[in-house]
Amino acid sequence: MIGDVKKERLTLRSGAKVADLVCVTGDIGKSSAGLSLLIKKKKGYVKPHLEPKARLKESQIISRFANAMIDVSDGLASEVRHICDMSKKGAVIFKEKIPISGHTKEAGKILRKDPTDFALYGGEDFELVFTISEKNLKKLKKQFKNFSVVGKILPKSKGIHLLERGKKLKLGSGYDHFKSNIKEYYK
Questions:
Q1: CATH architecture designation of domain 15-185
Q2: Distance from C-alpha of 165 to C-alpha of 176, rounded to nearest angstrom
Q3: Is-contact 26 145, C-beta < 8 A?
């Protein structure tokens, strides 16, 4: 997408600050789950993959409060890594806090796959990942509520990881449109 933006509304990937909260709009993983169902020729909810909706209005509201922002085109893991790399920071993502829809959970059952993997390593959701201070989080909640806090920005020395029930796990990479073989990825 190409366009003009007022400088004060420009939210880069490089603006995350230590102690910022990592947030995501809507629920994620639904497009990847839909694509997996289509590839495996299984019945299920595929509309989010076939008819994605960009969060343009939401991005305009969030940009007034966020320090960094990116859309979820390659999975939450990949987008958090982009923000951390560009901001020279680390992060922790809390697996239990990742918003997963009932349809995505159902696809996980059908495909015998952890539905959180669709959110972390799939893509094409076009939801937004952003970082925000706790002070600005309260201000944002007065104007927009359809988002979840899923993690926190840390110093770079702490690395980037996933926390699952208190256990620290490596946060892998998401889907890469330029390097990946889609059929292999969705096996």
A1: Alpha-Beta Complex (3.90)
A2: 28
A3: no
